[in-house]
Amino acid sequence: MRVVSKAINDIKIDDFAKKIITFRDKYSAHLEMTPLGEEPAPFLISELNITYNDIFEFLDKYKESVFELARILTGNVHDVDGFSLIHKDSGEDMWCILSGVEGREFE
Fold this sequence. Notes:
Number of helices: 4
Structural class: mainly alpha
Distance between the termini: 35 Å
Strand content: under 5%
Order of helices and strands: HHHH
């Protein structure tokens, strides 16, 4: 439980977590409203300066706490590394499609 509590406190002050929250609020949850008199325009994700590797570094940083939280809540031990390997290619393919990158040039 200490691992999870520490991670929660760390995430609250993590600069990258703040970028993820901004993405969620402005892009995904559409909480950012267009001011009156202005045309609506999509939020430019590039303004957050998020890289593909930043996402994986953030996930790696908190993987242990997510594993521990899942263990506490379900009483089961999950194969996090196996799950990650299975979904890695799908995530990379999606990133390539969304970013317009051909193949796996970023590896």
